[in-house]
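Q&A log
Question type: sequence-to-structure
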Amino acid sequence: MDHQAEYKKNSISLLGAISMGTGVMIGAGIFALTGQIAELAGKWFPLSFLFGALVTAFSAYTYIKMSNAFPSAGGIGMILQKAYGPGAIAGGAALLMAFSMVINESLVARTFGTYVLRAFDLTELEVLIPVLGVCLIIFAYAVNRAGNKSVGLFSMVMAALKIGGIALFAIAALWAGGYSFEPSSPDGASFPLAGFVASIALSILAFKGFTTITNSGAEIVSPHKNVGRAITFSILICVVVYILVALAVGSSLDLDELIKAKDYALAQAAQPALGPIGFYLTVLLAVVATASGLLASVFAVSRMLAMLTDMEMIPHSHFGMSGSIKDHTLVYTVVVAALLTIFFDLSRIASLGVFFYLVMDVLIHWGCFKYLRQEIGARGFVMITAIVFDIIVLLVFAGMKLQSDPSIVLIATLMIVAVFIFERWFLSNWINQSAKAHSHDHSGH
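Response status: OK
Response body:
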């Protein structure tokens, strides 16, 4: 465990933790997903972000309670190991979390490529989107390889610029539109219940970056109280920013225009509202937001995989590479992210992220409810509510995708099953009861 020294207690302030959480959240979440959410929710899409925040708030409760009780650099892996012991369920769910974060990186990378092409009016050259995305991933690898301090400082500065810049865009666009929001639907369709519920799944993706704070629990100053505060403030900041942006986009574009430009909705909305200068500033903001979000995410994922390796929850091979385990997991992270960026479009990447994250989230809540709720002083009904919300949203989303893109449901299912079968083979049992009991006695290693 030679890289444990990299994880220093009291090295992240409350403000730093909030910046880290919002920095990861505000990336593709708002620049790419707004149009996709509108495609499902229709004219009600701004409300989808509000309901996504509500579901996330119930979900965050379990993470906050666990982090308050056991602040750890192991984060999600620690929570799962405490709940299930170091067996295949814990290992598989932890890998789903890591993969969902890598999926988010590819979402961010393709969003970056889409907005760059939009700036030069080269949208017909879609083949360049994955090329630009992979270039950004390589850049993120180089910066992360240079050292942790540069990543931390860069992420904090960029988080402030992103929040301020996106909020200014939203306020300016609303002002240009006369502070009116009339989400017109040309066919006057009634409320699309199934589509709206499915859209909440994508909205949840825009908030799931709060888990990055959980993964840094042991490093945050006064973690028993500040982890929860950082998560709460991050979610509140993001929901305000997201709803402002959704209202601004809705005031500039009608629903058909928004859906047509779903991969670059903010840039499209900026053109009529703010003119050419506003358009280019919005594209620049998107480029900065996606680049900085990817930097923070690559750091978080490689770090999480290194911790899971330390905890012996996943196998490790250096494939002839030199350096520490974290150097190796950094390479694995960017390679998988690059492959997803090349082979999947934004819609399919987002769908994979939904399936991986919500399955993992349900397992987190169930494990903590069944085995740990009394130990951590948690209210069972909140955990059960989080599970019910997750399952409803996941099933409705899957049902919608079975109609529009059944192959992505099959791909996601096969990948999730493969992850758990692989972990069962590697760890030889589903739940290691003796190790779990040992961990609960606080005498584990």
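Response note: The mean pLDDT is 84.
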